[in-house]
Design goal:
Elements (H helix, E strand, L loop, with lengths): L1 E2 L5 H6 L5 H4 L8 E3 L6 E3 L2 H4 L6 E3 L5 E5 L12 E3 L4 E5 L15 E3 L4 E3 L14 E3 L6 E3 L12 E3 L4 E5 L12 E3 L4 E7 H4 L7 E3 L4 E5 L13 E3 L6 E2 L13 E3 L4 E4 L13 E3 L4 E4 L11 E3 L4 E4 L8 E3 L4 E5 L2 H4 L7 E3 L4 E4 L9 E3 L6 E3 L12 E3 L4 E3 L11
Parallel strand pairs: 1-2, 2-4, 3-5, 4-6, 5-7, 6-8, 7-9, 8-10, 10-12, 11-13, 12-14, 13-15, 14-16, 15-17, 16-18, 18-20, 19-21, 20-22, 21-23, 22-24, 23-25, 24-26, 25-27, 26-28, 27-29, 28-30, 30-32, 31-33
């Protein structure tokens, strides 16, 4: 018997979801329960969970559902999927896999976005069928265990936004099926070299941002990665120029190398990665100029706080922050035209002198601390969706259009 959201619509109308888990505790044939985002409140009844026949429990996105996750989950010998994310659960992680002599069929555990504390139990290493583990956005602390080489089927590991510390667990590098590895925003340290990533040929997403790692990748490294779509190395003590191995990653869509010590020019091959949609190179020591034209389609680009100079390229971004550089000349027509989809523009603290007719659908625009002069463009008053505008510290003349007084 599988009970899903649609058959339970009458409970939503009657307001009985506060006691729903009690209502079904006597349904002996229940093996799968899916109540994603159904307004559940309170805690999970221990009587309800005392059923070893359950194979799927999906209770995510019920923000008033919480309490301690009972250890009885550790005795569910048939449970394959447990999703309790985006709720209000507290306490320690249950010791999944602790029962000796039982082969647990778990393939997905998602306990993300709760208030769980404590460490990651070593018993997790017995979940040999596990493919997806998400413990992100909790308050977990302690060392990351070394049992990962026992989870040979693991394809996704999310431990980001916790309080984990210690060095990078090298056993993760043995997970040859791993597609997503997210360890950002913890207190991890140690050196990350290309040899640790050499076997992870199936990676699509990698994020080490916001730790104390030192990423030391050889300039001559030619990775086996062919599917990498997301790379997050913010604040990873990257030295030297932009890593050359990125030139071979034609599937890249999102790259964050911000808050490092990267020097030199932005290589031309970076602008040839046509799938790239989000690029953040802010807070580095980059210099040189940009190409006259960027062919990316509606990208989000953040290059602020560098030493880049010259003209701003001709292109149509969705989000653009080039503030705190040394750009000069005119703001390109393509950025300000009606064909542009841009919603955020920050070109402040440069040396820009000219601007074209402004008719884009800006939401936020900052042109302050430049050398703009002449009359204030009347077209600014036509930006109906504008909610923030800063044109201070320029040499503009004229009156501010009355229509700007109604900015959202």
């Amino acid at each position: 018997m599988r009970i899903g959201v649609t058959p339970l619509a009458d409970f939503l109308v009657s307001g009985r979801f506060t006691s729903l888990l009690v209502d079904f505790q006597n349904v002996s044939s229940l093996v799968s329960l899916d109540l994603f985002s159904c307004g559940l409140k309170g805690s999970i009844s221990s009587d309800f969970l005392h059923r070893s026949s359950m194979s799927n429990i999906q209770l995510s996105f019920n923000s008033y559902l919480g309490g301690v996750i009972t250890h009885s989950f550790a005795n569910f010998s048939m449970l394959q999927t447990l999703a309790l994310s985006w709720n209000n659960f507290t306490g320690d992680l249950p010791p999944f896999g602790s029962a000796s002599g039982i082969v647990f069929p778990f393939w997905r555990i998602d306990l993300s976005h709760n208030n769980l504390k404590g460490g990651i139990p070593s018993s997790f290493g017995r979940l040999s069928s596990l493919q997806h583990l998400d413990l992100s956005y909790n308050q977990l602390h302690g060392l990351i265990p070394l049992f990962w080489d026992q989870l040979s089927a693991l394809s996704e590991l999310h431990l980001e936004n916790n309080q984990l510390f210690g060095t990078f667990p090298h056993t993760i590098s043995k997970l040859i099926l791993l597609q997503k590895l997210f360890l950002s925003s913890n207190n991890l340290n140690g050196s990350i070299s290309d040899s640790l990533l050499e076997n992870l040929a199936n990676l699509k997403g990698l994020d080490f941002s916001g730790n104390q790692f030192v990423v030391d990748i050889s300039l001559s490294w030619i990775p086996q990665l062919a599917q990498l779509e997301y790379l997050g190395l913010r604040s990873c003590n990257l030295q030297g120029e932009i890593p050359g191995f990125l030139s071979t990653q034609y599937s890249l869509q999102n790259v964050d190398l911000s808050e490092n010590h990267i020097v030199g020019n932005i290589p031309t091959w970076l602008w040839d990665l046509l799938d790239l949609q989000v690029l953040n190179l802010s807070h580095n020591r980059l210099e040189g100029s940009l190409p006259p034209v960027i062919s990316m389609s509606n990208p989000s680009i953040d290059l602020h706080n560098n030493s880049l100079h010259g003209s701003i390229p001709d292109f149509t971004p969705l989000y653009l922050d080039m503030s705190e550089n040394r750009f000069n000349g005119s703001i390109p027509r393509s950025i300000c035209s009606g064909y542009s989809m841009i919603i955020f523009l920050d070109l402040s603290k440069n040396g820009l002198t000219l601007y074209p007719k402004i008719i884009s659908a800006f939401k936020l625009m900052d042109l302050s601390h430049n050398k703009l002069s002449g009359n204030l463009p009347l077209e600014i008053g036509d930006l109906k969706g504008l909610i923030a505008l800063n044109i201070s510290n320029n040499s503009l003349r004229g009156s501010i259009p009355e229509s700007l007084g109604g900015m959202g």
